[in-house]
Design a protein that fits this description.
It is built from ten helices and eight strands. By secondary structure, it is an alpha/beta fold. The radius of gyration is 16 Å and the shape is globular.
Length: about 220
């Protein structure tokens, strides 16, 4: 397995993320966009291989996928930590045929708003089979290549890839992916959720991602 983590000014959160995935003993590729805060130096010091890519999560994920050499790929955001024991669950899944999987979304916030957000995400995944990138994506190389991998999009790169996987629906693994709630606290859980849903609706309506990135 290769673990691909895109980064931009992630020095504050990356060490915890790298610590959470260390149990797998996998090759970690940090696709950094020339962060000025020392992210690349921290990643190297903690044992990751750093590749430089143009800024933009889609471009960085694509670069990481291209550089990966293992049969299975795990794409993970820099501010998302996997709970202990995740690698055993992942290994059992990887013993099966080529497929894709994601983890259970959780926020590192004790508020009722965070719990509501988690329930909404769980419902979206059950109903539409549409996990987002902050839930991680574990995918077999042949399947990833067959659908063309991540595209260098400024936004919605995760939704775009999941749509191209259909009719395959990623399997929900019973492991929590704990994501920083910092982005939600500023605007509020309800406000951020409403904005995200609006952007998703516009994307499905055909609005180009480069326009949506301005709203995001």
């Amino acid at each position: 397995m290769n673990i691909v983590i895109p980064t931009w000014n992630a020095a504050a959160v990356l060490p915890a993320t790298l610590a959470s995935v260390a149990e797998a003993g996998a090759g970690i590729l940090v696709a950094d966009a020339h962060s000025p805060d020392g992210t690349a130096e921290i990643a190297r010091r903690l044992g990751a291989t750093v590749i430089q890519a143009p800024r933009g999560r889609g471009a960085q994920l694509a670069a990481g996928g291209a550089a990966a050499s293992q049969e299975w790929l795990l794409f993970l955001h820099a501010d998302t930590r996997l709970e202990a024991g995740w690698s055993a669950t992942a290994r059992r899944f990887m013993q099966g045929p080529p497929a894709a999987a994601h983890f259970a979304f959780m926020l590192d916030d004790p508020s009722p708003g965070a719990r509501r957000m988690e329930r909404m995400v769980a419902w979206r995944c059950r109903t539409f089979g549409l996990p987002y990138g902050d839930q991680g994506l574990l995918i077999h190389r042949t399947l990833y290549d067959a659908v063309g991998g991540f595209h260098a999009m400024p936004l919605m790169e995760d939704v775009d890839l999941i749509r191209r996987l259909r009719p395959i629906r990623p399997t929900a693994l019973p492991i929590r992916a704990v994501t920083s709630a910092e982005r939600w606290r500023g605007r509020g859980f309800h406000g951020r959720s409403a904005r995200n849903l609006s952007i998703l609706a516009l994307y499905f309506a055909g609005v180009p991602p480069r326009w949506l990135a301005r709203l995001y």
